[in-house]
Amino acid sequence: MTVLEAIQIIDSQVHDKRKGLPEELFQFISRTTPLVNVDLLIKDGSGNTLLAWRDDEHSGTGWHVPGGIVRFQETLADRLQKTALREIGTKVDFDRNPIQIEELIIPNKDIRGHHISFLYNCRLPVEFIVSNAGKTEKDEGFLKWHKECPTDLLEIHKMYKKYL
User: Fold this and answer.
1) How many folded domains does the chain comprise?
2) Is residue 87 within 8 Å of residue 63, measured between CB atoms?
3) Is 81 a member of any domain?
4) Which residue did the predictor score with more confidence, 36 or 108?
5) How many Å from the N-terminal Cα to the C-terminal Cα in the chain?
């Protein structure tokens, strides 16, 4: 089989690139291409930071700044809003210019080992209230306001410690 034939077979399995790729294909691409992602820095009026609990094979276990990987032909602004809805449950207002841009290369990590991250200052609607809907603090996606940077912040987000 030629590379072109393999590409044609793979392309036939991708129904809508804008919705994301099948997991196996996404992992393959992440071994060969840097991933672009957006991260949402959300503070309340007292300076506390909203973080989410994460526990997965790619990032590990700990608190993280909500974020998401940009899809094909998706704007950074669109990914910010989709991530806010998925991880927080509401849309956000955000500054158009990121407050930090970081390239993260994780040595000896083949899958998802190279990211270009854009950190945006975001604001929640006034009426927003954290609702964890029956989740406990160590459940995936649990949201919590933090006064200080937690000691169990994910390694990949330690580049943002000065903001937390």
Assistant:
1) 1
2) no
3) yes
4) 36
5) 51
Does residue 55 lie within any of the structural domains?
Answer: yes
CB 110 within 8 A of CB 31: yes
- By three-state DSSP, how is residue 18 classified? helix
Give the tens place of pLDDT for each residue, 4-40.
988 888 888 887 777 778 888 888 888 999 999 999 9
The enclosing domain of 135 has a CATH number of: 3.90.79.10
Domain around 156: 26-163
Tokens of 73: 């032909």
Q: Quick check: is 100 in a domain? A: yes
Quick one: which of 105, 109, 118, 31 has its CA closest to 74? 118
Of 44, 45, 34, 103, nearest to 69 (Cα)?
A: 34
Query: What's this model's pTM, rounded to 2 decimal places?
Result: 0.90
